[in-house]
Every structure is written in C-alpha cells, then in structure tokens.
Amino acid sequence: MSKVTPSKSLISFCSAVLPQEAGGPDPEDLAIKLSLYLNRLPKDFHRGYIAAVNLFDAISWAKYQSRISGLTFDQREELILRLHKNKITFALIEALKALVLLVNGSYSNSPEIAAAAAKNPPVREDAKLNTVTASSYPSISRCDIVIVGSGAGGSIVARELSSKGADVIVVEEGQNHTSQEFRENMPLDRFASMYRDGGATALLGLPPVIMPIGRGVGGTTLINSGTCYRTPDRVLDLWHNKFGLEFARKDLFNKYLDDAEATFQVGPVPLDIMGNNGLKAIEGATKLNWKTGPLIRNAPGCDGCCQCAIGCPHNAKIGVHLSVLPIACQNGTKIVTDLKVLRVITDGSKAVGIYSKRTDGSKVIIYADLVVIAAGATESPGIIRRSEISSHPHLGRNLAVHPAVAVAGKFEEEIFPWHGVLQSASVEEFHESDGILVEATATPPGMGSMVLPGVGSKLIDQINDAKHLVSLGAMISDGPNGRVFGKSRTILTYKMSDTDGSRLIKGIEICSKILFAAGAKEVFTGVTRKPVLKSKDDIRELKEVADYKELHVAAFHPTGSIRAGTDPQICPVDINGNLRGCENLFVIDASLLPSSPTVNPQISIMATAKAISENIVNLYFN
Ligand SMILES: Cc1cc2nc3c(=O)[nH]c(=O)nc-3n(C[C@H](O)[C@H](O)[C@H](O)COP(=O)(O)OP(=O)(O)OC[C@H]3O[C@@H](n4cnc5c(N)ncnc54)[C@H](O)[C@@H]3O)c2cc1C
Ligand code: SF4
Questions:
Q1: How high is the mean pLDDT of the chain?
Q2: How many Å apart are CA 474 and CA 495, to the nearest integer?
Q3: Nearest CA to ligand 2 atom 4
C-alpha cells in the first residue's frame, strides 16, 4: 500500500483497541492506514498522538515488563480495560480511539459507501466554474474586487458585486472538487482533502473540542449537512437593537433570508428518503409531545445516501459551489484555487490588494480596489493580524460555536442509520427555552463511531451492532466561550462555562428520553461515568454523575470572531462590514455575525453577506 512503517507502539495500540483475535482488523495493516492519515494532519497533532500511544507501551512495561506487543490477548484485554476505567487514561484512550475507529471504519466500509455513491447518477451536472489553479495563475495581477474565501459568505459577495459589472477574483486555499471524485475516491481521502487540518481542527480547553471546518471551492457548504434554518426573530432583534445592525431589522432581513432560501431551493426532507434514523427521532419526540419534524434542507433530488459530510456524490446538495458561484462566474468572476492568502497589502490606511502563497511556496500578488475577507470565523482574524491593519482588542474574541454531543440508542430491529439523509429531523422543544437543538444526524457507515463505548472485544461487538443504532446530536448555542489566537497559524481556545456544560448534559438527557420513547433497548451516552443507560430510570443517575469536562464534545458553526456593530469598543467591524481603521477592507463571512444565530448558520451568513454587499454597492457603485 505504501512505504510507511508504523511504530511497534502504534501497531500494539491498534491491537489493544480492536483485537484481531476478537474479529478486529490486522493491526499492522490498520496501523499503516492510520499512519498515512496521521501524515495528513498537522505535525503537532501527529507528534502528540504518537507520544500518547507510546505512553501506553510504557505503562505496559511497568506492569508486565513487556511492551504491549509482547502481551497475550488476555493480558492486552486486561490492561486496556483497566486503563479505560481510570479517569485520566480513559479520556486519552477515547481521544486516540476516535481516530482508530475513523480509519478502520472508513476503510472497512468503503465498498458500501462506494456502492451507495454509485447507485444513482448525479441529479445535476458539476457547475461550470471559471477556476484556475494558482500554479497556472500569474504572479501579479489586478482586479476591482478580490475576495478571500469561496464559502457561504464570499460566494454571495462575488455573485452580488459581479452582477454590477465588477471584475471579481475569488482566492481559495482549497481545491475545486468534482462529484466524480466523490463517487470514486476513498471515503477517508474525501474526508482528509476537504477539511482543514485533515478534519483535526481542535479547540484547546477542558474538555478539548474537535471542530471540523471545510476547505475547498464552496467552503464549508461543500461538506456540510445541508440543513437550512432562517435566523430566529429573537436573534435579529438582538443584532438590530444591541449591535445596531440596520439590515437586521426583521422586515428587511426577511427578504435576504428569502433570497438565500430561493438560491438553495430549500424544502423539507421527504419522509421516503429520510431513513430510520430521522423517523425514530420523530417517533420518540412525538410520543413525548415535543415539537419535532423533518429538517428543511437544500438538497432537491437527494436520494438519502448519507454522504453529505464527505461531498455529495449526486450533486443533490446545492452548496454555494453549485448555486451561487456558477452565477458569479457567468458574470465574469474568476476563482483561483490552491492559493493561501497570507496578508492584505496596504497603502497607508487603505487596502490595495492581497499577498498570497502557492502550495510550492511561490508568491502571488493581486491588486484590487476593494478587498473582502471571507475566510471563515477561524481564519479571517489571522489574516487581519498578519496584515497589521487592526489592533482592535476584540479581534478574535467572542468566538461562538455550537458545542454538540452525540447520543445513540440501540434498537432490537435493524435501523441502518446510514440508509437515509445524513441530517434529517429536528426536535426543537428545548430550543427557545434552553438553547438546545436536537438533530437526528447519522454518518457514513463506520465514520462516526466515536460514541460507541468500550475497548477491545466489547468494542468490536458494538461495531458489529452499529446497524441497530439511532444517532442523535444535541447542540447548544454557547456563551460565546471561544477565542481565535495566532498570527502565522490559527490557535483556537475554548473555555466552556459551567452553564453551557450543564446544558450539554441536559442535551444528553433529552436525547436519551427521545430514544427510549422510540423504543431503544439501551442508550450510549458518551458520559464517562455512565456510558450506558438500560432504561429511562437510569437518566437520574446520569445527571448525578455526569461531568461536562469529561464529555466527548465536537463543535460546529464558528461565528462572531470579528463582530460587526455600532459600538467601536467591542466591534472591530462597523455596520457596513468595513474593518475599522482600514479603508476598502470588508469582512463578510461568519466572523461578523455579532452573536450565534442559535441555529445552523449558513442561511444567516448568506443573508448577511447579501445585505452587506448591497451596502458596498450603495457606497461604491452608485
Ligand atoms: C460538518 C459540518 C456540517 C455543517 N452543517 C451545516 C448545516 O447543515 N447547515 C448550516 O447552516 N451550516 C452547517 N455547517 C456550517 C456552515 O457550512 C458554515 O457556517 C458556513 O459555510 C461558513 O461560511 P463562511 O463563509 O464563514 O466560511 P466557509 O464556508 O468555511 O468558507 C471559507 C473559505 O475560505 C477559505 N480560506 C480560509 N483561509 C484562507 C486563506 N488564508 N486564503 C484563501 N482561502 C482561505 C477556506 O478554505 C474556505 O473554503 C456545517 C459545518 C460543518 C463543519
Ligand atoms: S444524503 Fe447528502 S450526500 Fe446523499 S444525496 Fe442527499 S444530500 Fe447528497
């Protein structure tokens, strides 16, 4: 397969987590695949992983005077089970195990994933985009408007401004992907190539939080779940009343939301493709008399193949690469791919272009009358810092995310959660009251077993039973508790508040109730001290023992790191999207939302981008 030679410790760790004697994979083969994947992750993450794995060999030596590779099957089982019961080593094993499962699951299920991708032809052709890779693009060029990032925010700006005749260039660090790749490439390759840091972007804190972020033409909409929520009225009131965003007045903003929804051709998930995962969520919530129903999505023609997170092989999910960028390109917009913007070029206090780097390290300069930064809430602050164009104390602060926990219910009957739409149904009963939104979310088979409890032969039993699971996610709108540091490289920190931690535990409780109401025989909670509930009576104990600092938390939807508003003390960007202190420089992506929209944010970001684009048209084109 490759020349990678994994360390003995890595092979041993694989054999302890998924023992071949109990039906697991060949540990050496798995360790090679894991090494190949680790090679694609940030170097410090890779080093940390290997150091942690070595620790287990050291522990084995201390107890048995032998590395794990020299232990018998029974000794290995005893060791890993014992360490899994210890509070500190439990957290470490769980973190390392997540990657072992991802790699093993995506390889062993790749034939099934490929078959589902090939089952139906694409419902629409790939878009005709005017893309050019940086290697074929001149080192110095000029345009009217250069936009950094081709995601939900940047694409709308490109569409709006090019429609007024502006000569627009969009610069995108990632690549342009095709639906053919999604039908033909290995699931793990699809995953690693379309996510920043190979999918291992982390928020540092307690608990540590993994936050996947997309990278490619279309930004995160390329790999997102396609759920489309309008910005709730109470959020718009906050943006308008507290932050002074005139365009967020409900009567005005609704027309931008209408535009975003029309662009994405949104509609409810049809019940015949929803799949059992969503149907069971609706059944459970309905029995509890809770507000529930199919999610609204942007995927006309979806066949429920459950692969949205690794690129829709049927072009059913019409992210901005299929809906917005084609119009921008028809208007003459050019998209330069594989080009990372390092900083903004200024002349005095005016932005006059961008300085960027090809993958071979050579430099590209694009001069422009206006510069728009739309690199997403985690990357845009770093570009501004590197450019030394703002020393605003709130730059990078107020990063809001949606921390989320996954809870799975095991049913007697076969569910096959991956036969159906990946994110399909919601339970909104606790959204307004507690800021907790439950969404039935599956993953491609084998690519999301993080919630499965146990290690060793028990874990293998769980993997074999995965077709009996219903998987729910509970996300909360947080503090905000995050911060974007870093100049040359983004560093994200997260200080979960006790209130938000308690709400996550409440989210687990809510999901457990839904799953039991729908008929689950047991529920996997992800809670260290109560990983399995046998009945709903166990929920009381779960609440008593759960500690949010020990939860498996993933986060999605970063927003607010360069927020917009009238108050210059707390908002680095003014209400027109203009970075304070720098003329001709706009920030138009998730960063400028003044608070979490409390729902999946792509529609809110697109609507805001259209509103700000209209401001720019009024300022510069009339
Ligand atoms: C797994 C997952 C599922 C999601 N599901 C949903 C969902 O169902 N519904 C929903 O509403 N939202 C969802 N989201 C979130 C949503 O997609 C994002 O909030 C939205 O796309 C953010 O828009 P943006 O324009 O701020 O950034 P992005 O869409 O992330 O675009 C930013 C682009 O800028 C590029 N870039 C960054 N730095 C540079 C640089 N230095 N130079 C050049 N280019 C650069 C990036 O590569 C990226 O392509 C999901 C997110 C994830 C990770
Ligand atoms: S489930 Fe997702 S990946 Fe599959 S067809 Fe529907 S939108 Fe595309």
A1: 95
A2: 19
A3: 305
